[in-house]
Amino acid sequence: MEFDGERILDGINLYFNDKEFLTLLGPSGCGKTTTLRIIGGFLTPTSGRVLFDGKCINDVPAYERQINTVFQRYALFPHLDVYGNIAFGLKVAKLPKEEIQKRVQDILSVVGLTGFEHRSIDSLSGGQQQRVAIARALVNRPKVLLLDEPLAALDLRLRKDMQNELKRIQQAMGITFIYVTHDQEEALSMSDTVVVMDKGRIQQIGKPEDIYNEPKNAFVADFIGESNILDGIMLSDYKVKFFGRVFDCVDAGFAPNEPVDVVIRPEDIDFVPAGEGHLVGTVTSVTFKGLNYDIIVDFRGFKWLIQTTDYHSEGETVGIRLNPEDIHIMHKSEYSGMFGDYSSYSAEYDELTEDADNEEE
Amino acid sequence: MKKNKSILLSGPYILWMLLFTLIPLGVMGYYALTDPDTGAFTLNNLRDLGLFLPTLGTSVWYSIVSAIICLGLGYPVAYFIAHRSPVTQKILYMLIMLPMCMSFLLRTLAWVGLLETNGIINVLLGKLGMGTVEIIGTSGAVILGMVYNYLPYMILPLYAIIVKIDNRLIEAAEDLGCNGTQVFCRVILPLSMPGILSGITMVFVPAVSTFYISQKLGGAETMLIGDVIEKQFKTSNNPNMGAALSLLLMLMVLVCTGIMNRFGGEDEEGGVVV
Predict the structure, then answer these.
(1) Which residues of A touch B171 (CB under 8 A)?
(2) Of A40, A76, A93, the CB nearest to B175
(3) How far is B27 from chain A, CA to nearest CA, in Å?
(4) How far apart are CA A279 and CA A152, in angstroms?
């Protein structure tokens, strides 16, 4: 896919299974919305094919596809009330009036808006508009439902509720959901399959657990959750060397002495008294996060983020132990060295990245 | 405190309204209800309004026809402009505005020169051996003048509304199964309704009270209510009758715009207007 000669999507090869909840996850501008718009029929790819039930649908216009979309910021029709919005697709399809009424009533109860038929769109809250948008798409009983950051405009609490709601609806109706988001937590908690994208390319496809536990490269490791990423050398199967020390690990299949990226999740690290540690460092910053403390520890100039429920004070010398299953090894990639160093750590890292991502692509 | 300030700020305009709109309205009402000779209270002027109803009917009819023609010509233009690049939009917008920068009288007079029996059009037609056409002095010429003069007032509000229609709504309609025509009928047209209504009002109101266009381009049978009112003041020397006619015209315009706004509020489902 290209715009003005600039390559936006490159080598996207994706299979969607029936009744699957699949999420396209990635930062702004990674091409996830573009992918969705190609599937929806609003963009024609400059090369490549879109297959639906085995048939190429490149030339099928959006209005003839058995696909419906829940748009970013909903795109509800302001000149119609709730009923008019939801019945829109059915009226276009010229269904009999009784059928339309029945289906609208059914879907209203599914999304929990019974009794709202004749409310105007302006009088609804963000969450209610969201539900109308979902109902308007689902009432047509599409084979595939596309959702473009449908929860981005909602506040945190409402977003959590709607996540559960969406998952419930998807399971109840047995429809394939293709969901676009930049929120990794949302992607992990809702999806059957997560597709991590960056720079118009697929970085990793897999089950949420696999993506989190076995990230393929530094980008995925950093984007999904927090990661300390270090340079290491794979001496042989199950032996990796970093910080001048050899550790046991559970990974194999690398070339002897291959340079690798080593990922250590902040929540996997255990503190021990300084004398008993594999590594010894100094605490440089402590932030209370509610559930845990975010502690930054300086190991020979390289700063790690460690998440723990134990309090350690700034300036304290601490030791850590690493179990073999806490260490995950990845091949070097174009992203090596770009992520996983907390030297410029800020307590607001989450909020900062989220704000940046909320900007429209 | 805040309230007082806002009154203070709007003071000049309120004063203006009072001096030049409300008081004159009162004066007009007074004239309409008094006898031209004695100055005594009378309902004769209102009774005589009946004589002018056919003229008023003609005015309303011409204005409605003009407004409809303007809508037919203006909507595609407005739609076209709204879907150009921002720079092109600005240029086209200016071109639509341009005629409005020239004197209304001059523009109408120019049509006289074009349409006259010995006017430019007939001279050209004569040279081509196609004889002459009698346009000037007909109702067609009056409506032509109205359409020409008031077309920008139709295009501009339409453009302002159409350009604001969210493209995502159009995509949503396509997503829900609408082809091009259906998208237009079900989404674009209903959403441009406010523009259509204000465009019609902006054409209808000045057209219904005009007298200059009909004087210059029309003939004896195309006397409009504006001409009649002008005559009452200028030649018949009966300002009382003129005031009564003006009141009638105002009432009529109010009723017409009221009906239209009613339509606007009740657009969906082509429903029954109670």
Answers:
(1) 42, 62, 69, 71, 75
(2) A40
(3) 43
(4) 41
Report the residue from B179, B190, B191 with minimal CB separation from A63: B179
Q: How far apart are CA B133 and CA A107, in angstroms?
A: 65
Q: How many CB atoms lie within 10 A of CB A287?
A: 15
Cβ neighbours of A85 in B, within 8 Å: none
What pLDDT score was predicted for residue A361?
37
Mean pLDDT of all residues belonging to chain A: 85
Given an 8 Å threshold on Cβ–Cβ distance, is B175 in contact with A69?
yes
Q: Name the interface residues of B facing A (CB cutoff 8 Å).
A: 166, 168-169, 171-179, 182, 186-187, 190-191, 193, 267-269
**Mind listing the pLDDT tens digit for each residue in A203-222?**
899 999 999 988 888 889 88
Q: Give the count of Cβ contacts less than 8 A between chain A and B.
A: 66
- Which are the contacts of A174, defined by CB distance < 8 A and separation ≥ 6? A19
pLDDT in tens, B203-246: 998 998 888 888 888 877 778 888 888 888 888 888 888 999 99
pLDDT at A1: 52
Whether the Cβ atoms of residue B246 and residue B229 lie closer than 8 Å to each other? yes
User: Rounded distance, CA B228 to CA B215, Å?
Assistant: 11
Asked whether the beta carbons of residue B168 and residue A71 sit closer than 8 angstroms, the reply is: yes
Q: What is the set of domains in chain A, with CATH numbers?
A: 2-210 (3.40.50.300), 227-358 (2.40.50.140)
Give the number of other CB atoms < 10 A from CB of residue A28.
Answer: 13
Report pLDDT for A129. 92
> Which amino acid is located at A34 in the chain?
T
pTM confidence score: 0.76
Smallest Cα–Cα separation from B162: which of B96, B77, B40? B77
Q: What is the pLDDT of residues B12-22, one digit of tens each?
A: 899 999 999 99
Mean pLDDT within A254-270:
89
CA distance, residue B151 to nearest chain A CA (Å):
27
Structural domains of chain B in order of their starting residue, each with its CATH number: 53-258 (1.10.3720.10)
The H or E element that residue A69 is part of is strand A67-70
Cβ(B66)–Cβ(B147) under 8 Å? yes
Q: What is the rounded CA–CA span in Å between residue A122 and residue A119? A: 8
Tokens of A190: 């809702």
Span A258-265, mean pLDDT? 90
